[in-house]
């Protein structure tokens, strides 16, 4: 009798929350509210909105002994800032104390190229690359029913987060955690974890820094990931972008 009563109470909670499909067996959709960066934070950091999209994931879950299908609709905003690949890759030749002339080569200078062009040739090019620095915001529905969270994103580790957003930030290798700091965002102090890693940019392997923050806010899971070459000191900009997060909640 107690089990029957408990089942009836759970069913009532599910129906009252609008998730009738979890009882009837129909597919239930959970959709996140948009997570974005404020205009003022973008203006002060030099980042721009590059892309907005929705990503839907359908998965089966076990709900009180029954298999049910849920559809999770995530919202993704990607912000980018441009930079020079030569700056990102670093000037290894000059780091070895060779002169500009040695780095560029006499033949290169004889062809009337500038010193900047010559060094750029040695270091892989200094072409301005759009999207060299990236900041991605993902809002994913908590999908909480009767006190149970059905969305696995709520418990993802930072390493798993980096894997999941690789399409937006670039595939990372040799990931190592470096440090953790706190940043005020959406009314509370949030833990931002920093990693060192490597990635491929324009065919070159470049050392990068990745910053990850994840927390729940008003029914959604908010994830923000920044990736930039470690030759750029972006920590202050990343913190301002995290501090400038906006989310209306469900």
Task: Kindly describe this structure.
By secondary structure, this protein is of the alpha+beta class. It has eleven helices and twelve strands. The strands form three sheets. Strands 1, 3, 4, 5, 8, 9, 10 and 11 form an eight-stranded mixed beta sheet that branches. The chain is globular, with a radius of gyration of 24 Å.
Secondary structure layout:
Layout: H1 2-16, H2 21-24, E1 28-31, E2 35-37, H3 39-45, E3 48-63, E4 66-84, H4 85-89, H5 92-95, H6 100-104, H7 106-110, H8 115-123, E5 128-141, E6 144-145, E7 148-149, H9 158-164, H10 166-169, E8 173-185, E9 188-201, E10 204-217, E11 220-229, H11 235-243, E12 245-247
Parallel strand pairs: 1-4
Antiparallel strand pairs: 2-12, 3-4, 4-5, 5-11, 6-7, 8-9, 9-10, 10-11
Helix pairs in contact: 3-11
- Can you count the helices? 11
Biggest sheet: strands, sense, closure? 8 strands, mixed
C-alpha Rg (nearest Å): 24 Å
- Strand % is over 45%
Series of H and E elements: HHEEHEEHHHHHEEEHHEEEEHE
Instruction: Give me the count of strands.
Output: 12
On the 0-100 scale, what is the average pLDDT?
79
Instruction: Give the fraction of residues assigned to helices.
Output: 25-40%
Terminus-to-terminus distance: 36 Å
Structural class, judged by helices and strands?
A: alpha+beta
Morphology call: globular
Poorly predicted spans: 2-18, 91-124
């Amino acid at each position: 009798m107690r089990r029957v009563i408990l089942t009836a109470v759970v069913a009532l909670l599910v129906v009252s929350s609008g998730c009738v499909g979890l009882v009837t067996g129909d597919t239930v959709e959970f959709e996140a509210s948009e997570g974005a960066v404020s205009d003022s934070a973008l203006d002060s950091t030099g980042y721009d909105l590059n892309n907005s999209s929705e990503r839907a994931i359908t998965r089966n879950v076990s709900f009180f002994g029954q298999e049910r299908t849920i559809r999770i609709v995530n919202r993704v905003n990607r912000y980018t800032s441009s930079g020079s690949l030569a700056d990102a890759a670093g000037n290894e030749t000059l780091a070895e104390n060779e002169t500009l002339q040695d780095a560029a080569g006499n033949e290169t200078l004889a062809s009337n190229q500038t010193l900047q062009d010559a060094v750029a040739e040695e270091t892989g090019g200094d072409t301005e690359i759009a999207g060299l620095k990236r900041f991605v915001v993902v809002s994913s529905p908590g999908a909480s029913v009767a006190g149970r969270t059905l969305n696995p994103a709520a418990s993802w580790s930072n390493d798993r987060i980096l894997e999941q957003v690789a399409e937006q930030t670039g595939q990372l290798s040799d990931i190592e955690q470096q440090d953790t700091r706190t940043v005020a965002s959406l009314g509370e102090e949030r833990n931002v974890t920093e990693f060192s890693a490597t990635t491929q940019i324009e065919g070159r392997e470049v050392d990068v820094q990745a910053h990850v923050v994840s927390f729940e806010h008003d029914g959604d899971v908010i994830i923000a990931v920044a990736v930039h070459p470690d030759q750029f000191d972006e920590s202050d900009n990343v913190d301002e972008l995290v501090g400038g997060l906006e989310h209306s909640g469900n």
